[in-house]
């Protein structure tokens, strides 16, 4: 406590001195600038020999005065440095040794005034200016492969973006799976001042495949060794991160550490926080050579230009070859080789404070490294629209870019070789999650799902899926997360995301509330051949029914379904509230049909269909409830698709609470007005695209 008080007294004294000396100095200069009660000009022009006031005496006085000014300025600079050090130490006394002694924020507080004073004094001192310039690009390299690692990268990137102030350039060494996922994610994320470059990890395998590695990361865990060759030759420095890192501060603070490198230091690393390299974890434990506890390579600062000049490639290869003669394989992938090189060349490493890589595993000293961080919120801009438009919120949704994470869980499926494979396509939100297991039991084929979730809900879904034996046993279900943005449910955007990533020739465009009949997957594949879908424009209709009972003995055949229909256990879909939606299916004919039959399009027709993968997308202007499927079926008809009803196929809608959007549609008059406006605009667009053939849609709408 006494030490703290003494420190404060010194800080106060330095502050008062800094404030008082300039004032005294300038009083002295002001008094000394008068000759016989008249001010003496210090202008260079007036100090020339031809000036009337110019004398040898005044020249000497002037030179003496200028010397004194320089001396005072030097004293001021020394005091500023002392005050700066005092300011830097003061927070450390209050918060422990994890705080920083500089701020990345510019233009606020006393530091800005101090910098202005230094510039005005023609000083070359730069100590108070931020080490990282405001617009300097920070380069980050990450090795990423597979579905799970891609999901981890998202958390890492979000943590970096949350705190960053500088432009970012991500260099992602990725396999084909990770590149597809992350390229789509960044394209749909639309984060400003972020650039992403991909490097083919598979092309680098030959560089490190000769190294036996026991680590779970496999061959990808060795690829950080070849970054000097992989990254652009003009890139001088880069921060290298493992996928399981989460940032709790501005990454520019870590980037600034590069300026602290001295001599031949080319690697910035945090000491390993476990006893692994001490070799005392168990009997006969024999780790790779390391300096003391060794260094952890989860966070690395690489001076690439110097590493290349040092012939880093040759250095680590020779070390690895020599050590592998005795060790036979690596246990911790690249980390073992980095440590072996550092053991031989300790001058290469700049030791980072432990809080730059807090290692949260068993038997570590990570509790010493926690630090507080400040909050920073990022804002997203939407397209400019007329805010006076009563349907502004609807129109804005159409142009909103939703962050999208493809293949949130592991996906593995090869379509059938006979080119008849069909993927079930659907979309859902968190309140329909309970339908997933039932659908998986009814449909054994591939499924493509778009889930509309918040970040928190995505984690809840992950836990739900990982706890489900049914879902975890299915690797042919693709889960694509579309993150929430805006006030409406973007139903058609979700359908388009799910459709776009179908890998089979055909799609069954369904909804999450429907259970397909048992065996529908195989039946559809046979129908694809029977109706020659590969060479014709056909949309095969799966008749839709519904039950009002939450507990239903699902019919195992058409005959059983007809019996339940007659008993009132089942109904044709929306028979009570929206007959027009499915009436053209002609359920009376379907009861006795044994062969497929064609039906004509009618107004408001919205059946569930099986189509080729190249069919038109859904129109994004329709969000929430109303006309989202109707518009799509109209477009299929405009493109001259034939609608063919399958005689032995059916699906049943299961009961659920009304959605939030249908409640708004029923209760909000403006909602219904805007939907009508969007319908009219869609029909006008249809007329422009399809000409005279589209007039029937306007006529049908007027007559309906």
TrEMBL record:
It catalyses: 3-O-{beta-D-GlcA-(1->[3)-alpha-D-Xyl-(1->3)-beta-D-GlcA-(1->](n)-4)-beta-D-Xyl-(1->4)-Rib-ol-P-Rib-ol-P-3-beta-D-GalNAc-(1->3)-beta-D-GlcNAc-(1->4)-O-6-P-alpha-D-Man}-L-Thr-[protein] + UDP-alpha-D-xylose = 3-O-{(1->[3)-alpha-D-Xyl-(1->3)-beta-D-GlcA-(1->](n+1)-4)-beta-D-Xyl-(1->4)-Rib-ol-P-Rib-ol-P-3-beta-D-GalNAc-(1->3)-beta-D-GlcNAc-(1->4)-O-6-P-alpha-D-Man}-L-Thr-[protein] + UDP + H(+); 3-O-{(1->[3)-alpha-D-Xyl-(1->3)-beta-D-GlcA-(1->](n)-4)-beta-D-Xyl-(1->4)-Rib-ol-P-Rib-ol-P-3-beta-D-GalNAc-(1->3)-beta-D-GlcNAc-(1->4)-O-6-P-alpha-D-Man}-L-Thr-[protein] + UDP-alpha-D-glucuronate = 3-O-{beta-D-GlcA-(1->[3)-alpha-D-Xyl-(1->3)-beta-D-GlcA-(1->](n)-4)-beta-D-Xyl-(1->4)-Rib-ol-P-Rib-ol-P-3-beta-D-GalNAc-(1->3)-beta-D-GlcNAc-(1->4)-O-6-P-alpha-D-Man}-L-Thr-[protein] + UDP + H(+); 3-O-[beta-D-GlcA-(1->3)-beta-D-Xyl-(1->4)-Rib-ol-P-Rib-ol-P-3-beta-D-GalNAc-(1->3)-beta-D-GlcNAc-(1->4)-(O-6-P-alpha-D-Man)]-Thr-[protein] + UDP-alpha-D-xylose = 3-O-[alpha-D-Xyl-(1->3)-beta-D-GlcA-(1->4)-beta-D-Xyl-(1->4)-Rib-ol-P-Rib-ol-P-3-beta-D-GalNAc-(1->3)-beta-D-GlcNAc-(1->4)-(O-6-P-alpha-D-Man)]-Thr-[protein] + UDP + H(+). Keywords: Glycoprotein, Glycosyltransferase, Golgi apparatus, Membrane, Multifunctional enzyme, Signal-anchor, Transferase, Transmembrane, Transmembrane helix. It is found in: Golgi apparatus membrane. Its main location: Golgi. Coiled coil: none annotated. Pathway: Protein modification; protein glycosylation. This is LARGE xylosyl- and glucuronyltransferase 1. The gene is LARGE1.
